[in-house]
Amino acid sequence: MSQPDISPDVVLDPSDPAARPAQMFPRLDPEMCGRVRSYGEEERMPAGTVLFERGHRGVDFFFIVEGEVEVFEPDEREGPRLVATLGARQFTGELDQVNQRRNLVSAHATQDSVVVRLRRADFQRLATGEPDIGEIILRAFILRRVGLIKLGLGGVVLIGPGYAADTLRLQRFLVRNGYPHRVLDTAVDPDAEALLACFALERDQLPVVITPDEIVYRNPSVAQLADDLGLTETIDPDHVHDVAVVGAGPAGLAAAVYAASEGLDTIVIESEAPGGQAGTSSKIENYLGFPTGVSGQALAGRAYVQAQKFGARLAVSRSVEELDCAEQPYRLTLAGGRRVAARAVVIATGARYRKLDVANYDRFEGQGIHYAATAMEAHLCAGEEVAVVGGGNSAGQAAVFLSRTVAHVHILVRGAGLTATMSDYLVQRIASSPRITLHPYTEITSLDGDDVLTGVGWTDRRTGATETRPIRNVFVMIGAAPNTGWLDGCLELDRQGFVRTGRACEATGLVHSPYETSRPGIYAVGDVRSGSVKRVASGVGEGAIVVSAIHGYLHPVEG
Q1: Mean pLDDT of the 159-167 span
Q2: 513, pLDDT greater than 90
Q3: Residue 5 lies in a domain
Q4: Helix (H, G, I), strand (E, B) or coil at 69
Q5: Closest CA to 376 of 171, 194, 224
Q6: What Rg do the C-alpha atoms of the chain give, in angstroms?
Q7: Which of 105, 207, 236, 337 has the highest local Cβ count within 10 Å?
Q8: What would the mean pLDDT of 462-470 be, rounded to a whole number?
Q9: Where is the segment annotated Disordered (predicted)?
Q10: Residue 123 above 70 pLDDT?
Q11: Is omega for the bond preceding 329 within 30 degrees of 0, making it cis?
Q12: What is the pLDDT of residues 446-458, one digit of tens each?
């Protein structure tokens, strides 16, 4: 990742950050240099001076005026591994610069150098006050994080059986949170045995996560892993935020971006990873402004960085267990007992796919039965047959995406076809693909296997005919169940459990906003809202619009 020399004869993948060194490690022009210097303090650093170390939170941003700085990954056994060498008019940092997560790498001056140090608050002023410079810096930060992920630098090693539910659970968490890692599958990777022996680990302790400083976590929960890796920001229970957004899907992230950019003290609480259900979409092709499509994870990742750029704080891997709406400020109790106080609350917890009612379902959930079709799952089932259950856009996107790498995709729907429930561009693409077969009026009736799923049977409801295929991976994308169990009677819900808003709650007199719930200062946006349109664009729109109502609630204009 250290600014490679690229020969004109070498053909590079355009998605590879190494193909964009000028953006990954830009040199600012002299005029920009002057502006950056005005935001910080100039310091002279003798050779060997440490600028920052791995594991620290909120490290400073350094702009190099003269000299040279090496960024490296510490390694207890093999010594430091070089990540990048930076010179005059370049700068340190990657995505952890915009939040309070623990830093992934270290840096020191390799020769006598002059740098400009920007503290966290100064860096935020630069990123927002100088938009042209901010754009260059944030693009570089994103590319650097992608580079760390691609090369497995600065992260952890996950060791375990590739098909095991807990291995996949931890891998999904690391992937969706953009944390660099390498996976050693003990079933096929020859290096795994040596590493297990090195750390005196037994197979019944798998999966394990090993950090660069050789701390071993044996089958941790995602909350424990997030805490120990520094992915969760520290939360002050006595601090009262202007807005707490519960859920970091498209609607929640949009609310966070607009609230923070308009000066509201904003915190976002997310139980898994940014993006919500949309974050698991392999490609969204009908979202405005992306003519070639964009993956749900990429869209969520950009919005996540955008919210943090404006000062929003994000607490991931922390589900909300209770909302105390009896008094104000409202208080949210998180898993583990931490509490968050806020004057206004935006509920954007979305919905989840329903489960199939078939024997052995729970047994194979997470290790054969999936609710997302990303690059991780595509790699898992490359060259095999798979089944996709569902007739909505998510199911269609999954089928088209998977058809590029698997042997064949079987789409199973209970109805007559797809035209009533799926966008036409997906229907046409599925119909024209030789690798996709649609099975109408069909439902799964059997799931077979010992430790892992090995066979799937389905039945045509019209004829009663059954068929069994050697399928090890099923993607279930049916219906939508709202994530509102944690509200526990606090708000008015409809019969399906979605949050009522606007005119549906006009008996309370709260009709100032179509997103206002039965409690003042509490709003619902996106898929969790009763009557909402289940689309990414509409969720983003609702998240943006609700901020004006929050302003009106927090700062009422007296007539």
Answers
A1: 91
A2: no
A3: no
A4: strand
A5: 171
A6: 25
A7: 105
A8: 95
A9: 1-23
A10: yes
A11: yes
A12: 999 988 899 999 9
* Mean pLDDT (the chain, rounded): 90
Burial 501-535 (b: 16+ CB within 10 A, else e): bbebbeeeebeebbbbbbbebbbbbbbbbbebebb
Indicate whether 234 belongs to any domain: no
Domain range for 407: 361-476
pLDDT at residue 167 is higher than 90: yes
Give the model confidence (pLDDT) of 5-56 as tens digits.
333 333 334 455 666 788 999 999 999 999 999 999 999 999 999 999 998 9
Looking up residue 385, the CATH number of its domain turns out to be 3.50.50.60
Q: To which residue do tokens 């944690």 refer?
A: 486
In this structure, the answer to whether residues 493 and 466 fall within a common structural domain is: no
Asked if residue 145 and residue 292 are part of one domain, the reply reads: no
269 φ, ψ (degrees, to nearest 5):
-115, 125
- For 406-443, the pLDDT digits (tens) are 999 999 999 999 999 999 999 999 999 999 999 999 99
Domain boundary among 195, 210, 229: 229
d(CA 199, CA 76): 14
Angle (CA) 536 541 543, round 5° = 95
Q: Which two tokens stand for residue 316?
A: 């991931």
Mark whether 214 and 306 lie in a shared domain: no
Distance between CA atoms of residues 211 and 68, nearest Å: 28
Same domain, 333 and 216: no
479/187 Cα distance (integer angstroms): 35
In 3D, which of 120, 3, 110 has the Cα closest to residue 50? 110
Same domain, 224 and 281: no
Answer whether residue 226 shows pLDDT above 70.
yes
Residue 194: pLDDT over 90: no
Q: Tell me the C-alpha to C-alpha distance, in Å, between residue 74 and each of 22, 53, 86, 103, 182.
A: 26, 9, 17, 12, 16
Q: Is residue 252 part of a domain?
A: yes
Whether residues 395 and 428 fall in one domain: yes
- Kindly report the CATH number assigned to the domain that includes residue 124: 2.60.120.10
- If asked whether residues 184 and 208 sit together in one domain, one would say yes
Phi/psi of residue 187, nearest 5 degrees: -80, -25
H runs (alpha helix) in 282-411: 296-309, 361-364, 375-380, 393-402
Contacting residues for 52 by C-beta, under 8 A, at least 6 apart: 59, 60, 92, 103, 106, 107
Q: Count of domains in the chain?
A: 4
Question: What's the rounded Cα separation, in Å, for the pair 202 and 336?
Answer: 29
pLDDT in tens, 248-280: 999 999 999 999 999 999 999 999 888 888 888
Q: Is residue 331 part of a domain?
A: yes
Q: Are 382 and 346 found together in one domain?
A: no
Which among 242, 250, 177 is positioned nearest to 528, based on CA atoms?
Answer: 250
